[in-house]
Design a protein that fits this description.
Helix content is 44%, strand content 19%. The protein is an alpha/beta fold and 419 residues long. The strands form 4 sheets. Strands 10-9-11-8-7-12-13 form a 7-stranded parallel sheet, sandwiched between helices. The chain has a 4-stranded parallel sheet with strand order 5-4-3-6, with helices on both faces. Strands 1-2-16 form a 3-stranded antiparallel sheet, with no helix packed on it. Helix 5 runs parallel beside helix 6.
Length: 419
């Protein structure tokens, strides 16, 4: 696929974006519900296509966490259609008046939400991204160009075609969402050089892909590089609660960016807490790495030594670092040094410590007495998410409908001219 082809795709998307910006909420919701039915009808087809991707991944030696991100069973396919229906139920942000001001001269100035325009998604092994991003971009009035990776190409095509056919049958004639089937790196470069055509790029995948996109893109990028998430078990923690939270944050789905990679434990509770949680985590197959204090408590044969590099590592697997700290200060300092501004939690019954933690830990999502696994658009009531942003401009944390908008000023007068 050459640059002229990408130019044509961008041209189609920009034309579609103009039409989407004026679609009524009722029209968008009707088409979204048709898309959901399309996924339901194509479930067997999608499952078959996904099996091809999973088989290729297995033959190429991909690990279990990778295959888990890739795999679509009946429950996950049903989850895709439920997600689309949920997005249809959400409030449409387009046209919302954020501010209204009437000036002394009679001018009425309104700050109004509008779509961003054309959004490019560059993603790897999660086929559900195809549906998530399409639904959110469509509801928020944005056209979207989807470029998935080769590992999930069969699944992506099946999901995309099911949604596209259903939307067309429901009367959508615009190229509101376009899947680029060419998975070459050259195609990525073409997208990244489409400034003036694509308004925003969002990479979804591993750190190497995201860094490549950020370094090369001439289009604004919203991203997070990786999720090194922490749970700090405070000296005032309910230890039964802490055990459940830490287990969930690591084991429930280890191959995702909001899973815990390091557990910090206050020294005053470590001797009692660590053996309890060690047993539960070990039975789940978690490999533990610890500092000197943690190894002294658990035994050096049970837990290997954690290096500084380990604390900088996003495992995305059943591997966990443990560090014993002497204070809330030391826990916060550790997170500041090794964290990635994604999701970090404290388990404590002390309100002062909880408040101090939430003020001092500068992450996109900060938790008190809850698992970091909730950093997710669906769990945050956004229906789905187009990505998680850890920067500080435009959007932060899970991005849903409102984060896919910008604003403009609409100024209404009665003939005023400036003197």
């Amino acid at each position: 696929m050459g640059k002229d082809t990408m130019k044509n795709i961008v041209t189609k998307a920009r034309k579609a974006a103009r039409g989407l910006s004026i679609l009524s909420t009722a029209e968008k919701d009707r088409i979204l519900l048709a898309m959901a039915k399309g996924i339901d009808s194509a479930a067997d087809w999608i499952k078959k296509a996904n099996a091809e991707d999973v088989e290729r991944a297995g033959k190429s030696g991909k690990n279990s966490a990778f295959i888990d991100r890739l795999k679509l069973d009946a429950e996950r396919i049903d989850g895709i259609s439920r997600m689309i229906r949920k997005v249809a139920e959400l409030k449409d942000p387009i046209g919302e008046v954020l501010e209204r001001l009437e000036r002394p001269n009679g001018l009425v100035i309104e700050k109004v939400r509008v779509p961003i325009g054309v959004i490019g998604i560059i993603y790897e092994s999660r086929p559900n991204v195809t549906a998530d991003c399409t639904a959110l971009c469509f509801k928020s009035g944005n056209a979207v160009i989807l470029r998935g990776g080769s590992d999930a190409i069969s699944s992506n095509k099946a999901i995309y075609n099911a949604m596209k056919e259903a939307a067309s049958a429901a009367g959508l004639t615009e190229d509101a969402f376009i899947l680029v089937e060419d998975t070459s790196r050259e195609l990525v470069d073409d997208m990244l050089n489409s400034s003036g055509g694509i308004d925003l790029i969002m990479p979804r995948g591993g750190e190497s892909l995201i860094r490549q996109v950020v370094e090369k893109s001439r289009v604004p990028v919203i991203k997070h590089y990786k999720g090194i998430c922490h749970v700090y078990v405070d000296e005032h923690a309910d230890l039964s609660m802490a055990e459940e939270i830490c287990y969930n944050a690591k084991v429930q789905r280890p191959g995702v960016c909001n899973a815990m990679e390091t557990m910090l434990v206050h020294e005053s509770v470590a001797a009692f807490f660590l053996p309890r949680v060690f047993k539960k985590l070990s039975e789940a197959g978690v490999t533990l790495k610890g500092d000197t204090a943690a190894r002294k408590i658990l035994g050096s044969k049970s837990i290997v030594e954690a290096t500084e590099d380990d604390f900088h590592t996003e495992y995305l697997d059943l591997v966990l670092n443990i560090r014993v700290v002497d204070s809330l200060d030391e826990a916060v300092d550790h997170i500041a040094e090794f964290g990635t501004d994604h999701s970090d939690a404290i388990v404590t019954e002390n309100e002062k410590n909880a408040l101090e933690f939430t003020k001092r830990v500068d992450s996109a999502a900060v938790y008190v007495n809850a698992s970091t696994r909730f950093t997710d658009g669906g769990e945050f009531g956004k229906g789905a998410e187009i990505g998680i942003a850890t920067g500080k401009l435009h959007a932060r944390g899970p991005m849903g409908l409102s984060e896919l908008t910008t604003y403009k000023y609409v100024v209404t007068g009665t003939g005023q001219v400036r003197e």
